[in-house]
Fold:
Amino acid sequence: MHPPLIMRALVLAAVALLAVVATLAIRNARNANARSSQPEPVAWYKARAAPYGPTTKTRTACGQRLDGKTRGVAHPLLPCGVKVFLRFHGHEVLTQVIDRGPTVPGREFDVTKPLADAIGLHGTQDIEWGFAR
Structure:
């Protein structure tokens, strides 16, 4: 092989190696940003919760459409749209306040039936919840 061809091959190999390293660095930075942008619970609190299903109303107090697929929680004080985590028997979900309630003494959350099914909540139970960061 001629010396200029050897040099050209070495330069091309170095450029290819540099491109691979840059690609890996960019991918790693994107993954780190994606992980850090995911909300996390600020702290965990205990509460009583129970599922509730579609009623005769088609809209929640927060204006959400209420049907057999709606996922969210009702809370008497938290503002509409506040994102909260619910944790029950190893199942953890991120959801939001979509309705007012519950009106049952001793219960802090009503959980829509589809969301309750997703975490295995049946009847009135103790759950853990937390505000999303």
Observations:
- The helical segments are 3-37, 113-119.
- The mean pLDDT is 85.
